[in-house]
């Protein structure tokens, strides 16, 4: 039944276009708080991974605000081992992230199929994860949810870490989403997140240590019937040594895991970058094939309290443990049990002085020789492990990787390209920094990690025209640009709130943190409408068109308004926008009247009738005038409509 419901939910989203930009495709994965789909960014014509939050999360205003803030912070991370965040949006309550689409599988798939892994392979997988976390910790971002499901392995072998900041966004809601997160990630949860909810870079270090344990053993260190039991174990039980399950694991690998997963966060490495350096030291020891490295194991071992002897009662056992005895060493510890001497119950113990020892001749000399030989052996071991097998890292900065490799080889060392970073000072393609640094101690035949300069950090300004200001800022975040001045102007074509223009312009190459100044539309400019009632149409039409309005004209007769003048106007006040229409009603003058019929009437009667009707009269004699003064014709003719006061011409015989 659950599968059917999931399929229906997926079917509803497949094919839908979010934010007018992302066409949702096939479902890729489903988690406790979101489902991931393959999608097409129709604006940039590229495939993206769309992480869509489950229904209901978008209804929580606090979560929505935190989601946007954390997404923006994650979008600022630019690192080859971090899944890039391109965009964030809210489509009618559907919250989503648009991210880089990675073709491949998760680390969970690899663990399920191949764990336990060899220590070398496990560390090689952990190194890029720590590289991604180092970049995040340098930027002040804590992941809070490191687990195999959030580590992606691309088909071309690149390791990518996803979901930076989402754990913090979900935990802020305080609702069932948080409970789901706890249930999904409790196996990797740092003790401080369980006890007081606080997290810093050392919390990610702890989760990374748990991840390493699982890679080495194929199992999680703590188990229980409920998530609460597992969380309790994180708080109250140390992570066991991986070698208890895989005996071939060297003690210094045990120590690395237990140092990273110390319950007291102050005993862990300060952040992922420190842990990354420790991983490289352990990896070098593995390459040398060392079954043990006492100095390295000692450096990594978590300090423990010294076991105190009872000064008033001798229990008959002798056991010596130093404050920094590694847990892995205790499993090989020999306990000496002397022969017990009985005494009556209830009687105090009495200590008898030992009998005098009779020394045989020469025994002191033999003991001295043994002590000297032991000291020589110890000194030789200390010299080898502490001095002889180390050399000094050369200065490789500003060399090309090829030249750096040659120079390192002269010292018997190897180089590897571990990272690339931007630099304003070191030209592109030259070594920016090394680990270890120049002058630092390194094992002979060891490996120097090279960070190569990508040259000055520069980005192209994206197309921002037509976006609202929030969307424009989201587009700026991945290229590390910031909002500058915002100037609002009226615009007749761009809707209010949208970007009209911006500078630097589209596709210009600029440095990070460059301020982009915006001109944002205030929408169409409102224009006041003047009243032209009573004015001539010619005057009104000219003035209204000059203001940017269109004009429509209708005509009608009006006895009071002169012909050609404006009888009425719609609207006659208020404001309109350019190209809006103003309607004018123009007077055609007084209404027309019918011309009376005066033909065959006497001239006197005709003049009287026409004059009384308000017309003017003009008399003309017919060419063959007979002197009868009878109207033979009239113009205009009888029944025609003319303006009042018009001239009527009559012709008499």
TrEMBL record:
Q: Where is the Protein kinase domain?
A: 22-286
Q: What is its EC number?
A: 2.7.11.1
**Alphabetic keyword roster:** ATP-binding, Kinase, Membrane, Nucleotide-binding, Serine/threonine-protein kinase, Transferase, Transmembrane, Transmembrane helix
Q: Which domain of life is it from?
A: Bacteria
Could you tell me which Pfam families the record lists for this protein?
Answer: PASTA (PF03793), Pkinase (PF00069)
Recorded catalytic reaction(s): these are: L-seryl-[protein] + ATP = O-phospho-L-seryl-[protein] + ADP + H(+); L-threonyl-[protein] + ATP = O-phospho-L-threonyl-[protein] + ADP + H(+)
PASTA domain location is 391-454, 455-522, 523-588, 589-653
Gene3D superfamilies hit by this protein: 3.30.10.20, Phosphorylase Kinase, domain 1, Transferase(Phosphotransferase) domain 1
Q: Does the keyword Transmembrane helix apply?
A: yes
A single GO molecular-function term is: protein serine/threonine kinase activity
Family annotation (InterPro entries): Kinase-like_dom_sf, PASTA_dom, Prot_kinase_dom, Ser/Thr_kinase_AS
**Entry protein name:** non-specific serine/threonine protein kinase
Provenance organism = Kribbella antibiotica
